[in-house]
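Standup notes
- DV: blocked on the single-chain target, sequence here:
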Amino acid sequence: MTMRRALQIILAISLIGVAFSGTLAYREFFGTAPAATGRCTALGAPGTVLGYPPCVYGLVMYVALVVIASLGLRSGKGSLERPGAQPASSSGANRTTVA
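- DV (later): unblocked, structure below
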């Protein structure tokens, strides 16, 4: 698998994660759940992490992955091979003979 293909897969999964966690965060902050109870969750309330619902941290993480994968795709790196490494060959064309 090439680096480009791996970054494309990571980008696709990250975009799905952004959509999912973004929907959850939107529903948490602007949905009907807080209005139905008549109050917002307090800082440190059960179900929060440092005062925010966990879906917000998921959204931040997936957005970061989208940015990193996009920058990786823009850089144009195309393979997972080490710089300077010779590609493996199944034929005997690259064999060195000692005379």
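- Follow-up: The mean pLDDT is 77.
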